[in-house]
Design a protein that fits this description.
single chain, 331 residues, ABC transporter involved in vitamin B12 uptake, BtuC, 77% helix, disordered C terminus
């Protein structure tokens, strides 16, 4: 199969694979249910087993889809903007900020939905702070300044999280804080997953609309300005969209690493580096990887293994394999 044909067919194959994985995740488990029974349950019919299976599995499956797609979108965007194959969604301190926001909300005894909101606000605030400080720095490489500011903001958020872990009640609050550090797909409710999905879709729409402009930015700000593009404004919009997607998904899953780093590299191998093809493919591969990890987390017993641990176990060797195969080249 030629390279062009493979590039055109890859998104269709990925979409079918994601749909198959999602259907398998919904039908398989301790309460097996056929797709027809699940469809009936979705419309208020079906037997009690199918209704229970759907109510238990649908939030986790939707959360995995949203988290994988959102992290992969953010990772692909940041890797292109910074021309750095190691850029990931936590580059701006967004993930640490979301975890710190959740920790502070838990310590104050807020309701679960308020904890999700605090995590989202914490992530957005961390990203906005990094962007604002980097914009105020004069006479430095803007990309390097933003990376350094993101590292500083992430370190500050991590310090706040460490303080929260020390003062948390070891029986009532510490287990939930630990979950935020290790990640899970089974804690979010269906409305929370839908809300995060809507924000992620908004961020993805903005990034796709920027499409060719992102390709120009990936060549450098001087080249973008030569084409008459407002490079600084476009970069800020793209970074804000990536921060929005990251904050939305971290608020429902906790810290889940490697998906935002690994999926864009795999997508780049399949469809190239053009943003209008790379971003959707990255989202599909990220969603597929998250679904696989979510199933593995529940495959070894009644207790769910934290997905953050599994993504590290799978992602580290997979990234090395991709890097050695040539995907680790500079975007």
């Amino acid at each position: 199969m030629s390279g062009a044909l493979r590039s055109a067919a890859a998104p269709i194959v990925a979409l079918v694979a994601v749909a198959g994985l999602a259907l398998g995740a919904l039908t398989l488990g301790p309460l097996p249910a056929s797709p027809i029974a699940l469809l009936g349950a979705a419309f208020g019919g079906g037997d009690a087993t199918a209704q229970l299976a759907l109510s238990l599995r649908l939030p986790a499956v939707l959360t995995a889809l949203v988290v994988g797609a959102g992290l992969a979108l953010a990772g692909a965007t940041l890797q292109g903007l910074f021309r750095n194959p190691l850029a990931s969604p936590d580059l701006l301190g967004v993930s640490s900020g979301a975890a710190a926001g959740a920790a502070l909300a838990l310590l104050t005894g807020l309701a679960p939905w308020a904890v999700q909101g605090a995590a989202f606000l914490g992530g957005i605030s961390a990203g906005a702070l990094a962007l604002a400080v980097a914009a105020a720095v004069r006479g430095a490489d803007p990309r390097l300044a933003l990376i350094l500011c993101g590292v500083v903001v992430g370190a500050l958020a991590a310090a706040l999280l460490g303080v929260a872990l020390i003062i948390a009640d070891p029986y009532a609050e510490l287990p939930t804080l630990t979950w935020w550090l290790l990640g899970a797909f089974s804690r979010a409710s269906l409305p929370e997953a839908l809300a995060a999905g809507a924000l992620t879709a908004l961020a993805g729409t903005v990034l796709l609309a920027l499409g060719p402009r992102l390709d120009a930015l990936a060549l450098g700000e001087d080249q973008a300005r030569a084409l008459g593009l407002p490079a600084r404004t476009l970069r800020l919009i793209a970074l804000a969209a990536a921060a929005l997607a990251t904050s939305a998904v971290v608020s429902i899953s906790g810290l889940v690493g490697w998906i935002g780093l690994l999926a864009p590299h795999a997508a780049r191998l399949l469809v190239g580096e053009t943003a209008v093809r790379l971003l959707p493919m990255s989202a599909l591969l990220g969603a597929a990887l998250a679904l696989i990890v979510g199933q593995l987390a529940r495959a070894f017993g009644p207790a769910e293994i934290p997905v953050g641990l599994l993504t590290a176990l799978i992602g580290a060797p997979a990234f090395l394999a991709l890097f050695l195969s040539g995907a680790g080249r500079r975007p």
